[in-house]
Amino acid sequence: MKRILLQCLIFFYLPFYISFSQEPLSYFPHSIGNRWDYDYWNGNTNFYTTTITRDSLSQDSSKFLFYDNESLPRYKIDTSLNVYLDPYVVGSEYLIYKLEADSGDVWFNNPEWAWVAGIDTGYVFSNLTTIKVYQYGPAHPDSTPFPYILRERWLASGFGLIYEWEEPGYFYSLKGCIVEGDTFGIITNVELKRDKIPRDFTIKQNYPNPFNPSTTIEFILPEEAEISLRIYDILGRQVSIIYEGVKEAGIHRYHWNASGLASGIYFCRLNAFEGLKTIKMLLTK
Predict the structure, then answer these.
(1) Percent of the chain beyond pLDDT 70?
(2) 7 vs 273, which has greater pLDDT?
(3) Quick one: 34 and 169 in the same domain?
(4) Whether 212 and 149 share a structural domain
(5) 43/85 same-domain check
(6) Residue ending a domain, choose from 191, 222, 257
């Protein structure tokens, strides 16, 4: 029910799939200064904002995008209009979007599948546009897809990411954005809003999951905090310390390589604000 309500907050959803082309890059606005404000729900309603603060070009003409003054790029767009998440991890780039993909196109991110479930029309902040629905699911050991969805992301032409849903129950819904200098929806005064954010923190499910041998762990802090991020095996033995120390408010990602460990279930535990949150991860070799 929460998922349906979040969708309805943004746009009117026409009840049919279509398959016509838009400029592929319009689904992923990538200019410096573009900003997106989201409401997200993980048991509580919270607020998240992110801004492209710089970019750079590689020798092969790929563009790297840096957000929120982070020192490492969050995305890479290559000349084939493929978008990779966390591209600084050499050999383990995660192909999150194929911007030229059509409805029904499928690709494999070991050990996870991704596909375009459909291309729809809808209104985003009273503007009629097209929406690509990307879905992601795990794979069997023989690399064939499992018949269920782990996460779903909606990209709207001219707006970018407008909605995201992920197991075990995280929802992101676009509240407002500034794209190419134009403002849509509601843009929040971040400093005023931050005072109202509850002291809640989130660790999202790692991706891909299952994984072999590398995966990305993402968490969000509502304010600066001293944290620890550790990995434990099924017997409760600590196998890795990913980070210990103070982190600023915002979204954080860490890449974990388990190449020296055996297949099985592992737990990632995030300690912050005198609380503990845990996700279960599956390493398959």
Answers:
(1) 81
(2) 273
(3) yes
(4) no
(5) yes
(6) 191
Same domain, 130 and 205: no
Q: What's this model's pTM, rounded to 2 decimal places?
A: 0.69
pLDDT in tens, 25-46: 999 999 999 999 998 876 677 7
DSSP 272: E
Domain extent at residue 44: 2-191
Q: pLDDT tens, 132-183?
A: 999 988 766 555 555 678 889 999 999 999 999 887 677 889 999 999 999 9
**Each residue's pLDDT tens digit, 261-280:** 999 999 999 988 878 888 99
Q: Tokens representing 140?
A: 């069997």
Q: Give 257's contacts (C-beta < 8 A, 6+ positions apart).
A: 92, 213, 214
Give 257: exposed, middle or buried? Use CB within 10 Å, 0-12, 13-18, 19+: middle
Q: Which tokens belong to 74?
A: 């969050």
Q: Burial of 282 by CB count in 10 Å (0-12 exposed, 13-18 middle, 19+ buried)?
A: middle
**Cis-peptide into 168, omega within 30 deg:** yes
If you search the block for the tokens 């001219």, which residue do you land on? 158
Decide if 80 contacts 100 (C-beta within 8 A).
Answer: yes
Do residue 49 and residue 136 come from a single domain? yes
Same domain, 131 and 255: no
Distance between CA atoms of residues 64 and 178, nearest Å: 20
Partners of 83 in the beta sheet? 77, 97
Buried b / exposed e over 181-213, threshold 16 CB at 10 Å, is: eeebbeebeeeeeeeeeeebbbbbbbbbbbbbb
